[in-house]
Each structure stands twice: as C-alpha cells, then as structure tokens.
Amino acid sequence: MITRIVGIAVYVALGFLILAFIFSNRELVSLQLFPFATVAELPLYVALCALFATGLMLGLLHSASVWIGMQRKLTRAQRTIAQLQKTANANPTP
Hints:
Elements: H1 2-24, E1 28-32, E2 39-43, H2 44-90
Antiparallel strand pairs: 1-2
C-alpha cells in the first residue's frame, strides 16, 4: 500500500515537472532541416520533446539489438552445454 502511494506521488510530481517545463518553454522557434527548404515554427517544448523521444527510441533500438545478440550467444552456449553433457553421458570415464 505504501509503495503504491509513493509510486502515485512520484508520477504526480513528474507530471507537475512536465507541466512546468511546457509552460516555461512556450516561445516559438523556427526549425529548418538542411536538405528541405521548409521552415517549421513550433513551440520550444515540442521541439525538445521530439528530440527527447527520438533519442529514447534510438536508445531502445540499440539496447534491443544488444539484448538480441546476447540471447543468441546464450542459446548457442546452451546448445554447446547440452551437446557436451550428451557426449559426457554417452562416454563415461572409469
């Protein structure tokens, strides 16, 4: 029960921090992507949140690729262990 209350309090505090960030960064900024000729005018908090979300997604993709590689190594190691145990059981030493 206490952990649930603490969790809710953390989420409420995080919500207030996000709202404070949004209200303090409402001024418009113009963004221009190099190869394109268009200029986008949007609030600073939108640009920063989009940048944060992009970094988060890239980090998640990287960690997922590392996790998949580790899972492959683990599967190979488990197969090798199973084969070694099978050969050890088939040829017991006196």
